[in-house]
Amino acid sequence: MKHHAYLAVLGLLSGTAFATPHTPACQLASLQAVPWAALQPALQARYCSPRHPEACQARLAHLQQLQGYMAADAKVNSVGLAAFMLATVVVETGIRQFSPAAVERGEGAGKVYGQINPRTGQRYYGRGWVQLTYDHQYRKAGELLGLPLLAQPDLALVPDNSYRILVASLTEGIPEVYRQNANGASNGQGPRVKAGDFITATQADYAQARAVINANCVGKCSASSRRYFPGKGYLPTQDFIDVAGKTETEALFFEKALCQAASTG
Q: Would the pTM count as exceeding 0.70?
């Protein structure tokens, strides 16, 4: 749940002008309407290079695995949510070829969450499709899913668990440490922010939805860098959310690819 240098490798570091909230290109209540064979060519064209066939094979295999989970999940009930989920995985785990068992580079070296927790003896660096970090997030995810993630954080690397954590993070909300109060101070508190607050069947704001994953304010932040969302508290506006533009770019790509695959499949 953080910005990664490998975005340059994926070609996602170019400047992005944020799109306004928009109506998704199609209505898609389930990914069962999206055959992998129809979706694969677009993914291969975007994420593969003939010079790196092994990386291509791994990326496509992991995306196919994710698409399979999503097609069987009734919670994934709109093209907007599906596109945002796929974009989140690409942005979070590109350095590990979109693997559900992705581990943060350096295992949190130099970060508070990369140090051994004296109470549990574990470290809570980024793991899995959503790169779950910090002990309180492991605890909350474990409570939501009935998994002993605080005691056994490597359970987040099991594909089934990695997917369940991704879905819970987006649809249930796992409070992150970056939430701001009225004065702009980070306090890690407040009601849960969910993808559904910004993405519905009829409207999607992928850049602002990035706050669900990482709501820290980046750049020269001031009172104008944040605004109050009723029932959710103060969040940075999309211009000040880490990798919001990259996430939006990828989500718009996936939205188009999913709609096209559904119409041709």
A: yes
For residues 255 and 157, give the distance between their C-alpha atoms in angstroms, rounded to a whole number: 27
Taking only the tens of pLDDT, the chain with its 265 residues reads: 554 433 433 444 334 566 779 999 999 999 999 999 999 999 999 999 999 999 999 999 999 999 999 999 999 999 999 999 999 999 999 989 999 999 999 999 999 999 999 999 999 999 999 999 999 999 999 999 999 999 999 999 999 999 999 999 999 988 666 667 777 776 666 778 899 999 999 999 999 999 999 887 888 888 888 888 888 888 889 999 989 999 999 999 999 999 999 998 6
**DSSP notation for 211-231:** GGT---B-SS--GGGEEEETT
| Cα separations in angstroms, 20 against 33, 51, 127, 132 | 27, 36, 31, 28
The vertex-238 CA angle with 256 and 44, nearest 5°, equals 30
Rounded-to-integer distance, Cα 33 and Cα 7, Å: 30
| DSSP string for 133-146 | -SHHHHHHHHHHHT
